[in-house]
Design goal:
By secondary structure, this protein is α+β, with helices and mostly antiparallel strands. 33% of the residues lie in helices and 18% in strands. The chain is elongated and about 75 Å long.
């Protein structure tokens, strides 16, 4: 039987997949996982899961995330609530800075998607 192994390096951190082991039962799988995947690396926790018990949902089957429009985080995402004649230079600078940050964030997302 194949068991997938997930390792946590620091307490409170994420468990990341580090490989698998072949074992007839859970106890042997834990022992093999400890020997093969935790002996040489700092490890605080191991998860050992039967491969058949792991299910996958990928992007072709569903759309993840729901609301991806996060324009509420940026000044440019809001309409003006004051008359334009009462706006100050600081207000305009804030809108420009927000637009630049929005563009930077979009470029970062594109780079991640293309990597």
């Amino acid at each position: 039987m194949i068991w997938e192994v997930f390792r946590q390096e620091k307490r409170g951190g994420y468990h990341t997949h580090c490989g698998n082991v072949h074992a007839p039962d859970r106890e042997m799988a834990l022992m093999f996982a400890e020997i093969q995947h935790a002996r040489r690396k700092p490890t605080t926790s191991l998860w050992v899961v039967p491969k058949d018990d792991i299910a996958e949902v990928d992007a072709e089957e569903t759309s993840f995330g729901g609301a991806t429009d996060k324009s509420y985080r940026w000044v440019a995402g809001y309409t003006h609530t004051r008359p334009p004649e009462t706006e100050t230079a600081e207000d305009a600078a804030e809108v420009v800075l927000s637009a630049e940050q929005q563009d930077e964030a979009e470029k970062g997302r594109e780079e991640l998607n293309n990597a």
